[in-house]
Specification:
The chain has about 160 residues and is an alpha+beta fold. Helix content is about 15%, strand content about 45%. It has an 8-stranded antiparallel barrel with strand order 1-3-4-5-6-7-8-9. It is globular, with a radius of gyration of 15 Å.
């Protein structure tokens, strides 16, 4: 499950909402939502989940509590001049999660609704969906979560 965390920052899907401009993206954002569509039966119990934060919260004995804390306290800053910085949140070490797939001193560029981030690992392009103080980033890719290869859209919701 935790291996899919890097997927949330590799591509994004289109959506409606407010216009997307460099000024509307600039600032510091925290993770407020994390979803996958179609839903996945991670526990092989017949129940598919689309809300990954709720899924982590529901794990027995609080097993996902540190993951949720890590993700929801992680910050990503899109700074003026095209620089990106990120800071892993609380409990990320305890959760054995590195949600920061964007390295410090990365660069960003917006072209329409396409956000391109370049760091030491390469270039990632996203479609951006913004509505007020909320910004959605989604990635679509093929994965096998126990049901054979399927196409999934993973969406990370960021809030200022």
């Amino acid at each position: 499950m935790l291996l899919m965390l890097p997927l949330w920052l590799s591509n994004c899907s289109k959506g409606g909402g407010d216009s997307v401009t460099p000024n509307s993206i600039e600032g510091t954002w925290t993770i407020s939502g994390f979803a996958i569509n179609p839903g996945v039966d991670f526990l092989q119990n017949g129940q598919k989940t689309t809300d990954l934060l709720a899924f982590f919260k529901s794990l027995p004995n609080g097993a996902g509590t540190d993951v949720v804390t890590c993700l929801t306290t992680t910050t990503i800053s899109f700074n003026s001049g095209g620089k990106v910085t990120s800071k892993a949140g609380q409990k990320c070490d305890a959760a054995s999660v590195d949600p920061s797939t964007i390295e410090d001193n990365s660069t960003w560029k917006l072209d329409g609704t396409k956000l391109t981030i370049t760091d030491n690992t390469g270039t990632q392009t996203f479609d951006v969906n913004r509505n007020g103080n909320t910004m959605g980033l989604s990635t679509t890719g093929t994965e096998d979560y126990g049901e054979g290869n399927k196409t999934y859209t993973t969406t990370i919701q960021l809030t200022r």
